[in-house]
Design brief:
By secondary structure, this protein is an alpha+beta fold. The strands form two sheets. Strands 1, 2, 3 and 4 form a four-stranded antiparallel β-sheet that branches. The chain is elongated and about 80 Å long. The two termini are 44 Å apart.
Length: 144
């Protein structure tokens, strides 16, 4: 952002002539603020192939993430990951679920929970040319 000085007598004309510039600056600032305020949780899942193979062979079926908050006074959540799938996805898919759990600020939050949750599965293949991240929106079901 530049520090432009405009004489008081020219201010009205400047505001009228530069409305688009000012709106674009304001929109850019709002976009940056939204990115800073969007809650993020990163769960690095190590040794995925080994965990999937273990589940296929009757071992541990799912893993639970540490709990995390959707913002400073947000909903408390945790994830369940089934490396070898769950239900109809067993043996064919990776299944994951986001659970809403009891949190410190539940009394001031809106219930039932009706927000979509964005999810990105980051492909960590050694060959970067074969990496393909998967993004999806989770839509709440039931009365969380």
């Amino acid at each position: 952002m530049s520090n432009l000085k405009v004489a008081r007598k020219d201010l009205s004309r400047h505001l009228k002539d530069q409305t688009d510039v000012h709106l674009n600056l304001a929109c850019g600032m709002i976009h940056k603020l939204r990115q800073q305020m969007t809650p993020r949780f990163i769960w690095k899942f190590d040794h995925f192939a080994q965990c999937r193979d273990l589940a296929k062979n009757g071992g541990q079926k799912f893993y639970i993430s540490p709990s995390f908050s959707a913002g400073p006074q947000g909903y408390q959540m945790k994830m369940h990951v089934y490396p070898n799938g769950d239900g109809q996805g067993e043996n064919t898919h990776l299944s994951f679920f986001v659970d809403i759990i009891q949190g410190k600020y539940d009394a001031i939050l809106t219930w039932p929970f009706k927000l979509n949750v964005s999810f990105t599965l980051i492909d960590q293949q050694a060959d970067q040319t074969k990496r393909k991240n998967i993004q999806c929106q989770l839509v709440p079901v039931g009365n969380a």
